[in-house]
C-alpha cells in the first residue's frame, strides 16, 4: 500500500497523492449516487474508505481508524436501504425532513462526539495533526452518513457544514486533491439538497385512490 502514498502528479504547486486522489474520487462518486438515491452509494463509500484505510494503515493510525468507522457506517447505510422500508413508487428510498427531536439528537451527538474525539486526538498527538478541525470533520461525516442512511434531507446540510471546514483544512495540510474535491462536493451538495428537498415534499403528498403511482 506504500505505492498509494506516492505522488501521482503536481497541480498548482501542490503534490497529489494516489491515495488522496483515488479515495476521494470514489467518495465523490458515492455522493453523486446518494443524490440519485441509488443503493450503490454505500458500496462505493465502503470502497473509498477501504482504499484510504489501506493507505493510512501503519502510517497514520488515527486516519486509518477514522476510515474503519466510515466503513462501518457505510455497512449500516447499505443495511438500512436494503431493508426496503420507506421506498417510493420508483423503488428508491423515500426522503424526508428529520423531526425536531431527531435534529436535536444529531446536533447533541455531533457536539459531544466532536469534543470527545478532539480530546482523544489531543491526548494522542500521533492520531491527528490538527485535533479540533479533524474531529469536527470526522464526526460531521459520520452524522451526515447516518442522516443519509435514514433518508433525511438534513444529510445535505451536515455535508455542507463539513465542507466549510474541510476545504481550507485539506489545502492547509497539503491534501490539495481533497481540497479540490471538497469544492466539487459543495456544488453537488447544493444540487442534492435541492433535489431531496423537493422530493421530500412530493413523497409527503397523499396518493389519491385510483390515481396512477
TrEMBL record:
For this UniProt entry, what's an example GO CC term?
plasma membrane
Membrane topology field: Multi-pass membrane protein
User: Which regions span the lipid bilayer?
Assistant: 12-33, 40-58, 105-124, 136-162, 174-193
* Keyword line: Cell membrane, Membrane, Transmembrane, Transmembrane helix, Transport
Keyword Transport recorded: yes
Q: Which domain of life is it from?
A: Bacteria
Say if the entry is tagged with keyword Oxidoreductase: no
**GO molecular function terms attached to this record:** nicotinamide riboside transmembrane transporter activity
Q: Where in the cell is it found?
A: Cell membrane
**Similarity-based family:** Belongs to the nicotinamide ribonucleoside (NR) uptake permease (TC 4.B.1) family.
Under what name is this protein listed?
Nicotinamide mononucleotide transporter
Question: Can you name the source organism?
Answer: Streptomyces regalis
Amino acid at each position: 500500500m506504500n505505492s498509494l502514498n506516492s505522488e501521482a502528479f503536481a497541480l498548482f504547486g501542490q503534490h497529489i497523492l494516489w491515495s488522496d486522489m483515488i479515495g476521494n474520487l470514489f467518495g465523490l462518486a458515492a455522493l453523486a449516487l446518494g443524490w440519485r438515491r441509488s443503493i450503490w452509494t454505500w458500496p462505493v463509500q465502503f470502497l473509498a474508505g477501504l482504499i484510504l484505510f489501506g493507505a493510512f494503515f501503519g502510517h497514520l493510525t488515527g486516519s486509518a481508524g477514522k476510515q474503519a468507522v466510515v466503513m462501518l457506517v457505510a455497512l449500516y447505510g447499505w443495511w438500512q436501504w436494503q431493508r426496503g422500508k420507506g421506498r417510493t413508487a420508483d423503488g428508491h428510498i423515500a426522503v424526508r425532513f428529520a423531526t425536531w427531536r431527531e435534529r436535536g439528537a444529531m446536533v447533541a451527538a455531533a457536539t459531544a462526539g466532536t469534543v470527545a474525539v478532539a480530546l482523544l486526538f489531543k491526548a494522542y498527538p500521533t492520531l491527528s495533526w490538527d485535533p479540533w478541525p479533524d474531529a469536527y470533520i470526522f464526526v460531521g461525516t459520520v452524522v451526515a452518513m447516518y442522516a443519509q442512511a435514514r433518508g433525511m434531507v438534513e444529510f445535505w446540510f451536515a455535508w455542507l457544514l463539513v465542507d466549510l471546514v474541510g476545504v481550507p483544512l485539506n489545502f492547509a495540510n497539503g491534501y490539495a486533491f481533497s481540497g479540490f474535491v471538497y469544492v466539487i462536493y459543495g456544488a453537488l451538495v447544493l444540487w442534492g439538497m435541492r433535489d431531496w428537498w423537493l422530493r421530500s415534499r412530493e413523497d409527503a403528498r397523499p396518493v389519491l385512490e385510483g390515481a396512477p403511482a
